From TrEMBL:
InterPro entries: Calycin (IPR012674), MoaF_C (IPR035348), MoaF_N (IPR024724)
Segments forming domain Molybdenum cofactor biosynthesis protein F N-terminal: 5-115
Protein name: Molybdenum cofactor biosynthesis F family protein
Domain MoaF C-terminal: 158-268
Amino acid sequence: MTAPEWIPVGALGDAFLPENNCLPPVSDLAGRTLNLHFENGWVIEHAFTDGERLTWRITAGEGEASQGEERYVATRPREDIYFVDFIKSGERATSVSLVLDLKRRSFIAVIGQLPTAEESMTSFITRIAQGKELTAVDATFLRGSIDVPLTPDQPVPEVTRDLLGKRVEYIYSPFEKYEHIYLNDHYYAWRCLAGSEKGLADTDACHYYKIADNLYLFVWREKIVPTLGIVMVDLNAMKTTGKIVGYENNDFGKLRNFTVGARARVISVIPAE
């Protein structure tokens, strides 16, 4: 029997493209300027030039006066809630994903960075000896308020345990189907039921935030093929929207950052630990 193949993220992106269940991109933010007040003291102005381009500028905090222009993709999982994603062109292998809740004037940002070849090829035993995680994919989470200074009573996304114990099937297209089991606060298990990674399975590091009732931000960081996944899981609509980013090939060169979306089905629920 032939063993399943661990494919690069570029090949995964190609497989996810046909007849996918992604939410359509929206241009609702075009012409708007949002000032994001981060909990670390940053204030970053995001001006959405049109439905595909934005400029950002740090107006307060570390790196003040830094700025850039990026191409972004936005989707709207619920009214007044947006998922905005872009590659940060001025930094190595870095992406920024924003969940913007315009009604509550709150947001969470996920700043992800993929490892260098040297970091990725460090053995698990060496990483354990160095006190590091098994995955070399990094993600930083920062929350804050939109267009108003952040105050202690401002509602912001919080870490949640709501998904723990759930076993959920995700159908990304007629060809790609996966299953997740949310094990505990730090890890989940996945397996590919159909598609380009059929037969593969693993347990990886993950993070959970609650955005609204039955709406969650779920982030995973893979350790075999350096991969960062960021999705919003809507258990009312039973849909997801988000992205996967990794290296196009196994040469640690060009990035592949692609939109994903799936139809979801809760298969079973067991009591969380």
